[in-house]
Amino acid sequence: MALAAACASAQNGRHAADACREVRGPLTAADSAAQLAGDFSLTLRATSGPDSGRTAVGQLRLVPQDRALIPADGATQPLRGTAAIALETVGATRMGDLAAADPADPGVGVYESRAPGTGVPTVVLRLGSGSNGRGPSPIDAGHLTLFVAGITSGGFAGSWSSSAGSTFPPHRAGGYFCAVRAPD
């Protein structure tokens, strides 16, 4: 019910931003990252960091990942995509190209892992090609991660966290987000 209110149908990005509310979950075993495929209006609202209280609205497109690239270090990467949003507005760190369409180094990576026994998923989106490339990555690298807490046919929502990595002074920001499915 809370997710339905958080991701109320929107005809434009401004309405989506106005309707976006914090969602805390939890996901259920029936939820799946595969449900997130499609086009969305994406709203990030900052509740911590230097730009707390500010909102960024943009677009997000998620498509199925190439079959050979789905396994990803103990999790799966069932979807990949692109985004167009002014991350700096909410103090989030840009980790590479959000519009990168390369399946091995996408602008947005969607990762899913399931808890043993219960099958409840953890679903996260990592924004920026610098966070989604194959191979080792620095342990102190920056990130922008969306943590999915609720999924409906109209979209998904949750919290986000961002860090510039090992910088001084530390640069961190966070808040909540809503992704409202674009009308067909």
Keywords:
single chain, 184 residues, mainly beta, eight-stranded antiparallel β-barrel, 9% helix, disordered N terminus
Structure notes:
- With 184 residues, the protein is mainly beta.
- The protein has one domain.
- It has 3 helices and 9 strands.
- The chain has helices at 2-6, 13-19, 129-132, and strands at 38-48, 55-64, 71-72, 75-84, 108-114, 121-127, 143-152, 155-163, 172-181.
- An 8-stranded antiparallel beta barrel has the order 1-2-4-5-6-7-8-9.
Number of beta-strand segments: 9
Structural class: mainly beta
**C-alpha geometry:** globular
Helix content: under 10%
Strands of the widest sheet, in order across it, are 1-2-4-5-6-7-8-9
Low-confidence stretches: 1-13
User: What gyration radius follows from the Cα positions, in whole Å?
Assistant: 15 Å
- Helix count equals 3
Total count of domains:
1
Write the element-wise H/E pattern from the N-terminal end onward: HHEEEEEEHEEE
**Overall pLDDT, averaged?**
85
Percentage of β-strand residues? 35-45%
Cα end-to-end separation? 23 Å
Main β-sheet, in a few words?
8 strands, antiparallel, barrel
